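Shipment paperwork, digital attachment
Item: protein structure file
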Amino acid sequence: MATNVVVVESPAKAKTINKYLGPGYKVLASFGHVRDLPAKDGSVLPDDDFAMLWEVDSASAKRVKDIGDALKSADGLILATDPDREGEAISWHVLDLLKKKKLIGDKPVSRVVFNAITKKAVLDAMANPRDIDVPLVDAYLARRALDYLVGFNLSPVLWRKLPGARSAGRVQSVALRLVCDRESEIERFVSEEYWNISALLKTPRGDEFEARLVSSDGKRLSPRSVSNGEDAGRLKSLLEGATYVVDSIEAKPVKRHPSPPFTTSTLQQAASSKLGFSASRTMQVAQKLYEGVDLGGETVGLITYMRTDGVQMAAEAIDAARSAIGDQFGSRYVPDKARLYSTKAKNAQEAHEAIRPTDFTRTPEQVKRFLDADQLRLYDLVWKRGIASQMASAEIERTTAEIIADNNGQKAGLRAVGSVIRFDGFIAAYTDAKEDGEQSDDGDDDGRLPEINAREALAKQKVNSTQHFTEPPPRYSEATLIKKMEELGIGRPSTYAATLKTLSDREYVVIDKRKLIPEAKGRLVTAFLESFFTRYVEYDFTASLEEKLDRISAGELNWKDVLRDFWKDFFAQIEDTKELRVTNVLDALNEELAPLVFPKREDGSDPRICQVCGTGKLSLKLGKYGAFVGCSNYPECNFTRQLSSDSNGGDEASVSNEPQSLGKDPHTGEEITLRSGRFGPYVQRGDGKEAKRSSLPKGWTPAIIDHEKALALLSLPRDIGAHPETGKMISSGLGRYGPFILHDGKYANVESIEDVFSIGLNRAVSVLADKASKGPGGRGASAAPLKEIGDHPDGGAITVKDGKYGPYVNWGKVNATLPKGKDPASVTLDESLLLIAERIAKGGIKPAKGKATKAAKPAAKAKGASTARSAKPKAATKTTAAAKPKAAAKPKAIAKSKKA
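Attachment content:
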């Protein structure tokens, strides 16, 4: 029997597809990308026409070997990786490696794509093979090279000129600028007063309703026209003594149309606002729904591919949706014609379908018992939005009543607005919710109005006059930032979640109550790039580059021409920074970040004058660990202050470095002082190099520090007593990771700083014994598995266990903590392998004897480099022979930039 080797990305998908195809096929997984650019200089060679030197890690080498071994006895190769640019690139990489190993020969090679993991979709794809899409691969190569060139050339400039900064990436830097620009808007915002005036009126039938003031003396009033209490009082008096008559009543039928099915970004936005999911969590759950769920013995993909910016559904899906609407809602809910959608987003690729259920008859209620809570909630969202997109419009009657108030010839106009749903249409399935931060500005009340007739008199019940103040624009949430990036044409659907995660991992932003707040280091990086690399963080420039990448994928541009055009100007800009002095950087940052560095003072004094010495000028200073604010009179005046986005930066809010005396040490007679340094407040005994210092523990503020507390801190470490078994001293102290006890070189955490001062010998021995019983890392070796995942490809069972610090994946002696919020029951084999590989790389862990010795060992990600997909980590093991450069081939451009 003829056989074909089929390559997909994940083992879960491989297992399902193998069932669909039968014995004539062998389906193997690549586990994501099989090679990548090594995280070091020289991986992209501008002086060698942008040659790219690829590296294969040990785990990927094994996957490729397995594919090659299977291909030796097969009749052909079918590349069936995901239907996007990254998927096309993975197929290209696999094929290129197999060709280099001379395993293809004259065997036929075909590329197939399917948008859903269902038997019909897979078999239809197999019946319609094609060649690898070379322009799509070229677009991938261009994007990968651009991200590398920016990351590995711009990041070193940051490290040299802005100590404490992490890295800069091409898309991440622009996303960070959006967050920082919004924060600057908030800081510059000046609140304005305004008043809302309305009247509670009663109809002749005794029904009450509220009408809002919209005009006075023939002049239209905008929602914020009444700007002070005096005007508000005058208008309120007018209404208090007025008579009211309905001038006109208009009932206007309007139709509200459904939104299109989800794209990647709209799914992330809706899941954020409705379900509270982060972008990365949304994609994790969607991936599982796409790859397939066991529905009582049959594994089926429940949704179509989740990385897309297309809004259209396939014709057969539209027919299926219309049929399901008729069955489940009734014929009136089926519109006369099918709805067709087109996207308004910049640079959208319409070739892909929107995200929709693979089968509209498979309702959320029917699959409920097969899904975990998060999967069900997301599937419910996709199903409802998908079916609503093909339903009839909602029919709404919008009633507007115009009312005249007359006070002895002085007239004012009021308006009351209400809506009544005459036919719910698509609202029966799905109701759109306003995204975070959206507010209605028209002030109209869309509640239902009572019966109101033209020319009838109304009775005044009450006049309301309320004071308000304008509010600054809201900070971005993940959802609204993704929406903004999509509007501007920045990034692609597959990159949004990774971009946000990178900003968080680099500590450039922090998420508080679902809002993105830029950290001080994030604002410094943005201010630096805006001052010295303006073009490369401009929204239009980044969007135009994305457009060029899309034109490459359409075969309209040559990818190397785009790289040459970019590199010429970018390298010149890098070279220019050689002459850049730190004083130039600080001057630019002082101006760009003035509201953060020099916040206004309550007494109105110059925020740039040092309040300690009274003559020095405050300025940003750059230290080994980042930026801080210091006085120009240093060392005579040693005032410093942390640069913090959440402390308002005010001198009044911090302890000055002018020592504040707390008294003397009763044993040494030395002065004890409370001070503030670049790393926060601390207490100090004595002066000079021999002075004893202690930072304040978490939860202790400068305001509560007195002589007693300072003495206690300076007395640490504290001897508790000799261990009854070893005779060695047990001590307690405060360290980098919080309060602890120490015995014989081994540490154990205690809950609070108070425990450090009060813990007795018996309890200390118990805490140490408890820590020892749990083994390294504090996890019990005998923890019962929460879930059996399966076998590692290199041997040995993978399980999910619960430990002191939460659930973790276990393989032999390797323990990898699950991401925060990850449901242990939903962990897949793919996710487990990724976590295990990352843990091995981070901790230098060797697998247990007899287990794999070739476990993936990921290299550190290119600092500043960006990747659209993180299906698996990359390891720095060996460079493919065909791609390994000669030592002399290092490009001059790269070498020069290293000296900048």
